[in-house]
Design a protein that fits this description.
The protein has seven helices and 25 strands. It has 413 residues and is mainly β. It has two domains: 159 residues, Cathepsin D, subunit A, domain 1, CATH 2.40.70.10; 178 residues, Acid Proteases (Cathepsin D, subunit A, domain 1). The radius of gyration is 22 Å and the shape is globular. It starts with 8 loop residues before the first strand and ends in a 38-residue tail after the last strand.
């Protein structure tokens, strides 16, 4: 998970009576992690904290699920992220996914001895006793709900996808292991996550599927066949060594440090006269076995003031620069340099928000594959077809929260 400006979250209920928490839905991790009342640092106090003693359905456990008696020693765990880490203890409690639209928790979500309400399940989680200041102190969310495969979880009882599958009725079980992510592109639409299938109305065309590479590691990672900018193939990904992790917890496109300089120079380019990065420019292609994912300037670049005399490699029809190009601005590739150690690295790219905004992504944990299709977005009412806006004095475009509305639907297939 990256500690960048944008973070995307929704709300869940934990415990009885329910305690609401904002959580990031993170395909790059494998646990539900909440700050707890055991943590007294300023970082934890900046968020809603889980009060274990207030929940009648909570159990203190060790990593293997064994109940821990009061005032007895208990197992701890430290989980590291791309930036930062947390330390915590293990708890089992009731987690509910539905029933909240920003209002107070409903009494109908309280678990009883007779059973659990719909969309509620018993789940093991990590109650954080320490959270690093960077990046958690500045984030708007409280905790993290991991959507990774089983390899990222302490055991299957900690894995959200496994727990959801076990909690669903037997009927219609073919889509139990599937979820999909739609990231809104304007204020006029709502982002959502679909559990148990995908929503056809978010698709432009058919889904293309790629198998998960080394699924035992737990990451939604696929093999990169080749990496191109326009028609120029980068030698960095020769010999079938590059992989891409699809990560809802990363707000930028993350690239290995060794590939960063060449990619940056190939992608930076002048802005058109209107001072934005919505027009033509270099295209970045991630080629998989059966299809490609392509990003243009709108997805990866942001207009910035020229501070160097170095010329961009992509001149955008340089003979007409005086007629249509700005000389005081250029389109800067918004790339993040990140090196992951083996066995994930060193040639791992992380496809975060820029890909998720352009492509609707579907995650099938049963067949271990990821589906991509162009996302169907509604046009913003602020801009007419064919009308160019002046972006030179505007703040960078920030889409709505990815999971501002948490929606659980049945598959439409």
């Amino acid at each position: 998970m990256a500690g960048e400006r944008n973070a995307y979250f929704g709300t869940i209920n934990v415990g009885s009576p329910p305690q609401p928490f904002k959580v990031v839905f993170d395909t790059g991790s494998g646990h539900l992690i909440l700050p707890s009342m055991y943590c007294h640092s300023e970082t934890c106090r900046a968020h809603s904290r889980y009060k274990r003693s207030a929940s009648s359905t909570a159990r203190d456990i060790d990593w293997n699920g064994t109940q821990v008696a009061p005032n007895q020693p208990r197992d701890q765990i430290t989980v590291a992220f791309g930036t930062g880490d947390i330390t915590g203890v293990f708890v089992e409690d009731v987690v509910c996914l539905e029933g909240l639209d920003g209002d107070s928790p409903s009494d109908g979500l309280v678990a009883t001895a007779s059973g659990l309400p719909e969309a509620c399940m018993r789940m093991r989680m990590i109650a954080a006793t320490a959270m690093s200041e960077d990046p958690f102190a500045s984030f708007d969310f409280d905790g993290i709900l991991g959507l990774g495969l089983g390899g990222l979880s302490q055991s299957s009882e900690f894995n959200f996808l496994h727990v959801v599958r076990a909690s669903m009725p037997t009927a219609g079980s073919c889509f139990k292991d599937t979820f999909a992510v739609f990231l809104a592109d304007s204020e006029g639409e709502e982002s959502d996550i679909t559990l148990g299938g995908w929503a056809e109305d978010h698709l432009e065309g058919e889904l293309s599927w790629a198998p998960v590479h080394k699924p035992e590691m737990g990451h939604w990672m696929v093999k990169i066949k080749s990496l191109r900018v326009n028609d120029e193939v980068l030698n960095f990904c020769n010999n079938d060594e590059c992989n891409a992790a699809i990560d809802t917890g990363t707000s930028l496109l993350a690239v290995p440090q060794a590939a960063f300089p060449e990619l940056y120079e190939l992608l930076r380019h002048p802005t058109p006269h209107d001072g934005h990065c919505e027009g033509p420019g270099p295209l970045l292609h991630f080629e998989f076995d059966e299809f490609s994912v392509t990003l243009g300037p709108r997805e990866y670049a942001q207009a910035e003031t020229v501070s160097t005399q170095a010329k961009p490699r992509f001149e955008n029809n340089h003979r007409n620069v005086s007629q249509g190009m700005r000389e005081d601005l250029f389109c800067r590739p918004m790339l993040m340099s990140l090196d992951m150690p083996e066995p994930l690295g060193p040639k791992l790219f992380i496809l975060g928000e820029p890909v998720l905004r352009k492509y609707y992504t579907v995650y099938n944990a049963h067949e271990k594959k990821v589906g991509f299709a162009r996302a169907r977005h509604r046009r913003s009412s602020k801009q007419l077809p064919g009308q160019a806006a002046d972006y030179s004095q505007q703040e960078p475009r920030t889409p709505p929260s990815m999971f501002g509305a948490f929606k659980r639907r049945k598959s439409q297939r």
